[in-house]
Amino acid sequence: MYHILTCDRECQSVDAHREYTDNTYEGRDFMKPIQSDQQFQDAIQDKGMVVFTTSWCPDCRRLDMYVDELVKDYPQFNWYVVDRDELPELSDTQEVRGIPSLLFYQEGVKQEHLHSANAKTEMQIRSFLDTLNA
User: Fold this and answer.
1) Domain locations in the chain?
2) Which CATH superfamily does the domain covering 30-131 fall into?
3) Is there a contact between 8 and 64 (Cβ–Cβ < 8 Å)?
4) What's the pTM value of the predicted model, to 2 decimals?
5) Per-residue pLDDT reduced to its tens digit, 37-89
């Protein structure tokens, strides 16, 4: 029930909230959803910027407000999104302890990890992206 209380849409049920959040990324070109381990393995081969998020996280919803601009301003990355609740084992193996987290991969190897404590604002995320040589 906690995730309903933080929903900016004030969804009236778990099903309504899930439908709203399932459609959040649908039809948008900025990030491709990763829904399997194989998709993840494919994504991390070539400049993969993977954003770990959830539907109930307030900081993740704040990120939604400006992530389109980030993707547009940093086209050197291939952008992906993982719902931590849908792939908890993947999140654990990638050492994602908080959300949102941004992880940068090249040739299948994690190069950098912006932990949630440092991914609270657009400025923090832009500073992180600016430091990467992609």
Assistant:
1) 30-131
2) Glutaredoxin (3.40.30.10)
3) no
4) 0.77
5) 999 999 999 999 999 999 999 999 999 999 999 999 999 999 999 999 999 99
